Amino acid sequence: MPQGFNFSKIKNGEKILLQAVKDNPLVSNTALAKMLVKDKPFDQFNPHWIRIVIAEIKIKHKAELEKLAAYKAKKLGKIPQEKEGGKGGGPIKTDEFKETGDSAEITKTISKQIKTLEELVKVCEIDLDVWEVERWVCNKWESFFHSNDREKHTVVPLFQVKVWLKKNKARIESKAIYGDLIADAKKFAPRYKEIKYPKIEGGTLLEVDMLDFHLGRKTWFEETGEDSSLERSEEEFMFCLREIVAQARAYKVERILFPVGNDFFNSDNHLGTTTSGTRQKDDPIWRRTYRFGRKLMVKAIDELQLIAPVDVLIIPGNHDMERAFYLGDGLECWYHKHAAVKVDNGPRKRKYYEYGKCLIGFAHGKTEKINEMPTLMATEAPEKFGRTKFKEFHLGDKHHEKKINWISIDENRGVVVRILRSLALPDEWTIDNGYIGSQRSAEGFIWDKERGMRAHLFVNL
Question: Which residues contact 256 (CB under 8 A, 6 or more apart)?
């Protein structure tokens, strides 16, 4: 008993304290002392003295209290663990996972506080391809542990995290598409016959732009004046591609640049929403739309590779960011044995293509600020920027044509930013908001290695 501390004023004072400890075996000495001095008979004492007496009681009744604490902890899911070299070091992880339909709950006891969602996912080993975190809490309490040294006592903080999950249906369905795609590619990754392209002196680059196609968009004649179908989409896409190629025959094409993506698909998942979740009027059979689009793109590249080697750049849009990646990965699988078709499906949203003294940048244009595009080009591709003389950025998203010129101090190092036209049919939202009158078009460009852009090609629908 601490010197100067007398329980004589309280009948059975030590027994009352012992019972309080038995009733609260997982509560720290300090917390229990503060709780006891709030009421009689201990309200006349300093909590510091009560805390010391509690510590001595725990040492005196060690065996009995440890059994009681273990029983209580097990019942509550708060079990002390053994550390290397000794007992009573801290809590072990106690896991509980309950799955009910499309939802689940995780309860986990840990020794470190979780402060961020990233830490939560790592500690609870949550598979984000299957689950989304709806909400979570991290509760704290303290437990008393002591060593063999009577003078040393430790209060160990314990944390219990509880997580509420729901199935990430969009990601699951996207992975299913991806699995189908890879299976198809492995089943038939064709070996194309090697084409001996003629040697061309003074050859040019043909850039083919079929932007903002929005495959799968459903339109109804009475609402928009147009009826859509996948078959109509294929017919229009291939017509524009062949017309651009026909116009380019007047030039000595030695290579073809084919940007793919830029909202090629109207939606990003089986829910019929864009990447950010905006609901679309879309073909309800989403697997059919995706496979149709993939086969259409293979058909287009197969025709282009008959003319010259083809470089494919995957440019994700705001409607189809994930689907654009899956499409690019599928095309990589399909053409990985083809020496003349190269697919760039790198993770960067903006890509740069160098041809002689020409540098062409590509981005969808949804999030970028137009007046910052030249600076982005110089920053993201400094070596290519320094080597080239003719520079342009080609954007989509706005569904109309616009050209903006920037001239630097050296007029020969100007940058042109073009917003290219769209092939998309107008939908109900477009009509209702008055975004009408834009010409549906595909575009093409002829680039000369030494003289820059030589021709701008159009196909109007």
Answer: 205, 206, 207, 208, 304, 305, 307, 308, 309, 310, 311
Q: Where are the domains of the chain?
A: 13-67, 77-167, 169-460
Query: What is the C-alpha to C-alpha distance for residues 110 and 133, in angstroms, rounded to an integer?
Result: 19
Q: How many CB atoms lie within 10 A of CB 123?
A: 18
Amino acid at residue number 280: Q
Q: How far apart are CA 46 and CA 34, in angstroms?
A: 9
pLDDT beneath 70: ranges in the chain: 1-12, 26, 49, 70-95, 141-157, 173-189, 397-413, 435, 437
- d(CA 211, CA 205) in angstroms, rounded, equals 18
pTM value > 0.90: no
Report CA-CA distances (Å) from 67 to 62, 80, 155.
9, 11, 18
Query: What local confidence, expressed as pLDDT, does residue 356 receive?
Result: 95
Question: Cα dist. 283→173, 214, 402 in Å?
Answer: 16, 11, 31
The pLDDT assigned to 144 comes to 53
Instruction: Show Cβ contacts of residue 379 under 8 Å, excluding neighbours closer than 6 positions.
Output: none
Its sign, for the CA torsion 260, 283, 292, 231, is: negative
CATH of domain 169-460: 3.60.21.10
Q: What is the pLDDT of residues 390-425, one digit of tens each?
A: 999 999 866 444 444 444 333 334 789 998 988 888
Question: What does each C-alpha distance from 378 to 119, 371, 372, 428 come to in angstroms?
Answer: 37, 13, 10, 40
Tell me, what amino acid is at 109? T
Sign of CA dihedral 52, 54, 58, 60: positive
Is the Cα torsion angle 210, 211, 215, 219 positive or negative in sign?
negative
